[in-house]
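Reader question, answered in our methods column.
A reader sent in the components of a multi-part assembly and asked whether the whole thing could be modeled at once rather than chain by chain. We filled in our standard form and ran it. Here is what they sent:
COMPLEX SIZE: three components
ENTRIES:
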Amino acid sequence: MAGDVARTGVTVVSGAFLGMPAFPEAARAAVHDATLRANLRHATRTIRDKRARAVAELADFPQLRAAGHAVKDHTLRHLDTYLLRLEAAVTAAGGTVHWAADAAEANRIVTELVLATGEREAVKVKSMATQETGLNEALAEAGIRAYETDLAELIVQLGHDRPSHILVPAIHRNRSEIRDIFRAEMGGWGRPAPEGLGDDPRELAEAARLHLREKFLRAKVGISGANFMVAETGTLVVLESEGNGRMCLTLPETLISVVGIEKVVPTFRDLEIFLQTLPRSATAERMNPYTTLWTGTTDGDGPRTFHLVLLDNGRTDTLADDVGRQALRCIRCSACLNVCPVYERAGGHAYGSVYPGPIGAILSPQLRGTASGIDASLPFASTLCGACYEVCPVGIDIPEVLVHLRERIVQGGPVTRAGARVRIRPARGHAAERAAVRAARLLLDRPTALHTAERLLARARRLRHLPGPGRAWTDTRALPAVPAEPFRDWWRREREPQR
Amino acid sequence: MRVALFVTCVNDALYPGTGIAVVRLLERLGVTVDFPAAQSCCGQAVYNTGYRYETEPLVRRTARAFEGYRYVVTPSGSCAAMVREQYPRIGRRAAAEGRGGELAELAAGLAPRVYELTEFLVDVLGVTDVGAYFPHRVAYHPSCHGLRALGLGDRPRRLLAAVRGLELRELEGAEECCGFGGTFALKNPDVSVAMGVDKVRAVGASGADVLCGGDNSCLAHLGGLLDRRGQAVRAVHLAEVLAATEERPWPGTLRERGSRW
Amino acid sequence: MTAHDTSANGAPRMTGRDVVLARIRRALAGAPPAAPVPRDYLRVHADRSPQQCADLLAEHLADYRARVHRTGPDGLPATLTRLLSAARGVLVPDGLPGTWLAAATAAGAVLLADRPEDTPAELDRADAVLTGCALAIAETGTIVLDGGPAQGRRRLTLVPDHHVCVVHAPAQVVDSVPQALERLDPTRPLTWISGPSATSDIELDRVEGVHGPRTLDVVLVWSQ
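And here is the structure of the entire assembly that came back:
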């Protein structure tokens, strides 16, 4: 499928966002797109208060958060052990486990598995991992059509668009835009939109139901991700709302689940934490409408064949970073997106990744490295206001990781890429800044010199427009008036003599 | 009681009125204020932009400048958060990278002695009514680092509520970031300004004639927007509101020589 | 090191599994031990009587638009007959009590047995499905099916547009998610249902009724 995007003109190829401009430029278009701003503002504000209420209902939410944090850290610390345990349990329950070091390997495995069934189409339940690997495009190259069945993913797929939110990939679209996409595109993929389709969300949901039903009922292959994998029992867990997940997980004969290696948890009991924190943090519900838990295959119930593809694709590189590895705790709830003031204005597409928002700003540059313009700009796409950390149900200190990644970009240093330890050099684009920071630091470390500079500044008094990078300030904001004298001089005159 | 004023580099160079206000306010409350001249900048902007190594000398300088003081008071939630949250972290990493334990010791030693102004007033001095008089309609913007990193909670609002003549107006979306974010304001100017414009619109809707906050860096950003947009609202640091009395009212402008205070 | 380099050296080609496991071990070399997991969160969020627990379940099911019907054992058949009165074909899993079957028949419905050879398209012709459940969770308004007696295969409660589910209180009702997991068998296929199918995908506003059953009737039967 071609992935031309009307709004930004970026083409998606194999899951990478080629030609993606750096965040500030990408965000500029979004900031000035009035419809997009209104859509995002409405949606994120709707969910913010609801989340706060759903979380406040549990008096022990802080304890659940701490427990989730600790379970994830413990699992990551012993990741090899738990993955092997998981593999053994899934195999014992009738499943087959595959390991993929990168996106290409995962796509190849899935493509071969689908081709081996003799089928040329598959139904998919929303999965971040397969978006990350660009699976749909890889399948298309092999002549396999993958149908997205989550309502928002359907909107994105029909609209030749890209997802802009982890939980609600079409959050950038409002109801009338969705109606227009359904009317124009559904016919090309199967059952057309009903005559005279309106923009009431109920009507739109009904149109999706009718459009997808024929696909569910004839599907022989289902493709999914998973929210959790239980090492002890080999159980996989998918949380969803619409029932498309249940359709994909239970009706086809073959089920292929592509899951990041960080999704494993040690025990079945550990789910008692996440099944409480995830729905409340994500859709602000006490519980999402449907949760499916399956262990391998079951005679006479559900798929006869089950394949689990464990995906690395940069996760082990992230694991090697002692500050950055906490990003692997993420359970993809998207609460950090919904509270982020930068996300609300810049929109998800500006992040140039299937993982937008604050978590994307620390995950993408770790999974993909910081070589590209977009990845090197993402850690700077934050005011460090801390709202993301405050709501994170597994306590990821996103501001800490952002600053850590900024450091890696401007100072360079040791990183792991594709399993190999390498040393990256300071990014070239920051040379002038580095010189300025160094000069400023030298000045700030010498109060006498600083004092002289302050006095020079006081003499210059009121500046209206700054040259160079300072224009980014003065184009829109007045400068503070420079005082006649710095505080030090007042102190020296008014207080020092009294001592 | 004797305290050291940690005025911060931004206030020293651009907002001396805030530093003067802290001195007058604390002296009025019976506190002896020192200003250790060796202080300069906590290094927050340098650190948050990614230059941890360049930050280390500033950590050392700041920690040494305030050695011996039980209380170090600063009119900046952001700089207080830098010292309390990041200094120990910077020290630990320097030690882990083999540059010795001295920085870690200095950093850990300073962190618990630094108080943001409202923390010092409410928690240490135990006052909320500081005897101030400020006859204006005021909207309070809780800056992010004070709000989330320090957990200042309702301390600033309690202090403002006790100011005679002051009418505290509700600010919609008060807890949302103003968009300043240090070098973010320069690196991502479009988003920064979009956030700031939403904030100053909310300020306009609040009916306030003064926008009050605990961080002059955020207020510089918002004040700059208010100015360019022609909104008749003044951005004033909380310390200056609390320092104002009937006998010595707020001078009304930060441009004048600080001695007017 | 990649799988490729290794095979070029003439050594046995590393599998994806070897590569990933080796990377993990290298990444964790020298990492400090993880802190113990604090389990000081609550097992239940309030001290409730069985009656209060059933009340909470009813309230929370209704919050997310399930239709809740409360009755005693004697009133159950009449309730089922009423709920199924509009259905022509009703799917019935194995192990359904005779009184429930009789109630469905009394509604004028044709009973459709759960047969493994039926295709999803054939199931789609049924109007409703009648089941019991494994347990229900009051704090979240959730019913859980585990494929046990009177529950059937998972697809049975998925394809028809109307699901009637009987919950026995207090026996099948637990307070909380932790209590539920203690009672469930992870080797069975589990389906947790909290209200009818819904979506928040359009403007983050919740709309009920997408792919799963759009009507969920929960009959809460109180028998001490």
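What stands out: The first strand of chain A starts at residue 11 and ends at 13. Residues 34-56 of chain A form the longest helix (23 residues).
Send us your own complexes using the same form.
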